[in-house]
Amino acid sequence: MEAMFSWKSSQMKQLTTPRIDQCIGCHSCSLACARHVHKKLSWNAAGIRIRSAGGLSTGFTAHRCLACSPAPCAQVCPTGAYIDRPGGGVIVKRALCIRCGQCVEACPVEAIYQDQGGEVYVCIHCGQCVPFCPQNCLEMVETAGNREVSI
Amino acid sequence: MIRQEFRILLVDLSIGKGKIVLVDGRNSVAGGSGLAALLFREYGHPDRGWDDPAQPLIFAIGPLTGYFPLMSKTVCSFKSNYHREYTESHAGGRSALALRFADLDALVIHGRAKVLSCLGIGAHSLELKEASFLRGMDAETSGKLIRRMFKDGSGHRSIMRIGPAGEAGLAMACINVDTYRHFGRMGGGAIMGTKNLKGLVIHGDSDFMVPEGKGYGAEFKEIYTKVTATEMMRKYHDLGTPENLQGLNDISSLPWKNLQETHDPAIASITGRAFADQTLLRNGACSGCPVGCIHIGYIREKAADNRYHYHQVAYDYEPIFAAGTMLGVTKPFDVLRILDVMEKVGLDAMSGGVALAWATEATQRGLISAAETGVPLRFGDADSYRLAAKNLGLAANDFYRLLGQGTMKAAAVYGGGDFGCVLGQEMAGYATGELFFAAQTLGFRHSHLDTGAYSYDQKNSDRDIDKAVDFLMADEPGRVFLTSMVGCLFARSVYTEEQLARCLDLLGFSTLAANIPGTAEQIRRLRWQVRAKTGFDPANFTIPKRFYQIKTWKGLVDGSYLDSLKQEYGRRIQQLIAADQ
Hints:
Helix content of chain B: 40-55%
Mean pLDDT of chain A: 88
Strand order of the largest sheet of chain A: 1-9
CATH topology of chain A: Alpha-Beta Plaits
Number of strands of chain B: 20
Number of strands of chain A: 9
Number of helices of chain A: 4
CATH architecture of chain A: 2-Layer Sandwich
Distance between the termini of chain A: 38 Å
Low-confidence stretches of chain A: 1-10
Number of domains of chain B: 3
Strand content of chain B: 15-25%
CATH class of the largest domain in chain B: Alpha Beta
Order of helices and strands of chain A: HEHEEEHEEHEEE
Largest sheet of chain B: 6 strands, mixed
Oligomer: heterodimer
Largest sheet of chain A: 2 strands, antiparallel
């Protein structure tokens, strides 16, 4: 069993932003996540959200799950809607969510968005946003090989 | 679709309150340009002055906004203080998606705030905040402070503001949108100024379900692939529109030194390649557009020994023409330094540059002097132009206050109307020939994007009046429909009628999808009829002598052909206006 878990873990991929310096602020990634994962048209209802880093003259940052392991948001989730994902981040079971918002508070990097109705949105590391970045800022990488250094 | 009706927010600045109204008309005006005209007909006052508090300032988006790539622009319409008629100006940035996610098809602002103020709106908020402390403040600093005044929504909002030029009511005052975009032409900034509205923040904080099934996602992907994997990306993203500088110079169609020339070997130092190699920091994009056509360069200033600071300045073909070749300024950093000043004071760069070019020639001819301009103006003298641009934006004296109302307003007092490069408004950077000159003079927005006349000129050397005007008349409805969606006109090769029909159909606008040509024609007519109510008459617009004296790739301009084109185009527009009234 241990060997099998280890094999799964090494195969899990994470969304990374190694070339976010190239971001042009088009929001294509957020819109793609909202459209494909959450079936919405939205800037916010998405697992990756682009913000300026203090005005448009300062470039952009991506608010998204950094794949903590263990994940603080899963630790505080009282209903098991968020559970630790092998390799980092969380597996989301939306039907179990009671919209308490504790995950939002627990996330140290503001990666989780809660809408007016209380529904929460976090990156599930599915990679559907990646092909929609025209600047090649995003990349899915194996957990074991994840290095967030752009050189 | 979100809904068939238009959801409009009407804001009365005099009381700081708003009202949501639902307006019918989707199948007849679509949105964007059509919706703006419909709303001006409803809420505008054709017979009152441009600065009457009751006049509306309208921002409208379309049915495809946010749903498909490059559907990322907003139409701003108002009664202009430039020609005192109804007009439109277009901009992107985050404005279009911010309106979409604020759940608005249009925002209509009327009334005048009691003191200088900033308006913040969102799907769940409306707040008018006093901002007297921003009076006279430049557009850049204002933007930073407005960000702090309205704390929520970083990254998911649009911030529009004006500089001193707008507060002064100049007809060349722009509305700065999200730092690097502008509702530039026809004086939108002055409308905000007269309403005591220094800033407008639109927070896009709601969301909508996308159409069920796989069709929508697949269509989006197909369009996305087209716009990112094709020539469009190369043309608009890489060197961008400044690539045209070399090409237009090569065919003697680039205005130099107040259009005294249309070609100059000095182009070598001011090409799109030169700007990219020397000054380009990065590209930016409007929200919802993966192309990223916004080119942001930099300037570095030395305050004292070893003390430097830098500014980022956006550039495009048009601002480079206006603050570069038109002024004989041929170093990229010098051009950006002039544009930086225009950004800060909140001037439309195209209008400002062309106006200063006229002032320079008027100085050469002894009609004006440093007594009026404050600094001696000489073609190529970038430092003087920086000061002059500041003076112009601040309306620093009677001369600049007049010039800021339009080059021909100043020429009427000081002389020099023959060489004012004005075609309805200060010219765009295309000395391509007779059809463009006639088309900009009478075009709806007096913009080179109203029709493809500049392109026609480059491909046709015959002098067939009917053929040329037929082209203008046939070209306009497609563009009007696209600006009713509201798509970027850079995407017009992708968004064919068939493509737009598929997009509209997928969102549930099947009636509109099935009748694009008819609706486009209807919108075109409505826009002109609304403008006509505010006084449009082709006879109000003349073509200065300078345009009859230049040489393009076709040789010397044919004056009689130009006059005939203008007369026939004017006649056809009037015919349009008279139809079904």
